[in-house]
Specification:
Blueprint lengths: L1 H48 L8 H7 L27 H13 L1 H6 L4 H27 L4 H6 L2 H22 L2 H28 L34 H16 L5 H19 L5 H19 L3
Helix pairs in contact: 3-8, 5-11, 7-8, 7-9, 8-9, 8-11, 9-10, 9-11
């Protein structure tokens, strides 16, 4: 009788424990499944970064199968190795044409669904600056706080710095017979020429008045399509050519010498000072400088200095 009572008690305990155990197992199973689902993108990126083909792919199966080291590679197969873009005088014209093709076919990439987020950020930021220009620009026109700064960073001085940095660097690289440094200087010059083409086209279309074309206490709201100084946009405001070119040159040096941590700080710091001086001297609106800096970075980073 005692054994029978104990057996029935054990069966009762099992009936009580079984739902709890099964529910816990179901919960752990669901949680584990969710973790695996969420981890799949991270695992895929890790495998890709390590050069491991995706699981289940033909490449993955081939990598796991025994290989004959003496067997020749399959016909038509190629090995792609990322190398820095070649920058020589001979390659310069072709590189420039390739840059122009990428620049002017960029709307096609947008239509295909690429680069929407960075484009929206740049366009949205520019629109916000344009909306705030009538409020911020009078303060820069009327203040005397930047008088000493403006005497140092004039338009001529700023333009001279942009031109002198790659030219001096190239001359020094010739003396040192350093082909990599020569390539850097040529890429910087290539970026400046790319910037000049884009600048002329955009300026000729927008025809924006410069802040100095307006009285210090005047109306800064209606400035686009009002200049008419030149059919090619000479003397107009949008975008800032100094910001465009200074950030392009800075990006070339920052990308080519990013192993030296101080180079990006110096390059972008000098470009920022030059760009800011265009606002304090009344040559450009803040929106002109913002869009110029953004375009200069994009052109140098994704057209000129690319793998």
């Amino acid at each position: 009788m005692g054994l029978s009572i104990d057996f029935r008690r054990l069966k009762g305990m099992c009936r009580v424990v079984r739902p709890a155990v099964s529910s816990r197992c179901r919960g752990l199973t669901i949680f584990g499944f969710l973790v695996l689902c969420l981890a799949q993108p991270a695992l895929a990126r890790a495998r890709q970064a390590a050069g491991i083909p995706p699981l289940g792919s033909d490449q993955d199966a081939a990598s796991q199968a025994p290989q004959d080291r003496s067997a020749p590679p399959p016909a038509g197969s190629e090995t792609t190795v990322a190398t820095p873009r070649e920058a020589t005088w001979r390659k310069l014209p072709g590189n420039f044409l390739h840059d122009q093709k990428d620049m002017w076919l960029f709307p096609v990439k947008l239509a295909e669904g690429h680069h929407w987020l960075p484009t929206a950020l740049v366009v949205g930021g520019t629109a916000a600056f344009i909306a705030s220009d009538p409020e911020t620009m009078p303060h820069f026109r009327q203040t005397t706080a930047f008088h000493g700064f403006n005497r140092v960073f004039t338009s001529t001085v700023s333009g001279g710095i942009i031109a002198a940095v790659p030219a001096t660097f190239y001359a020094a690289s010739l003396i040192r017979k350093n082909s990599y440094d020569q390539g850097t200087a040529l890429l910087a010059g290539e970026a400046v020429v790319d910037d000049a083409v884009l600048m002329v086209v955009v300026k000729s279309i927008t025809q924006r008045l410069r802040p100095t074309d307006i009285a210090a206490s005047g109306n800064y709201s209606d400035t686009f399509f009002q200049s008419g100084k030149s059919p090619i946009g000479k003397g107009t405001s949008f975008p800032s050519g100094h910001a465009l070119m200074s950030f392009s040159v800075a990006t070339v040096f920052a990308r080519r010498y990013r192993q030296h941590r101080w180079v990006p700080f110096v390059a972008y710091g000098l470009a920022s000072v030059i760009s800011f001086s265009r606002v304090t001297t009344g040559a450009h609106f803040p929106s002109d400088v913002f869009i110029g800096a953004a375009l200069g970075y994009v052109i140098a980073r994704y057209d000129v200095v690319r793998q």
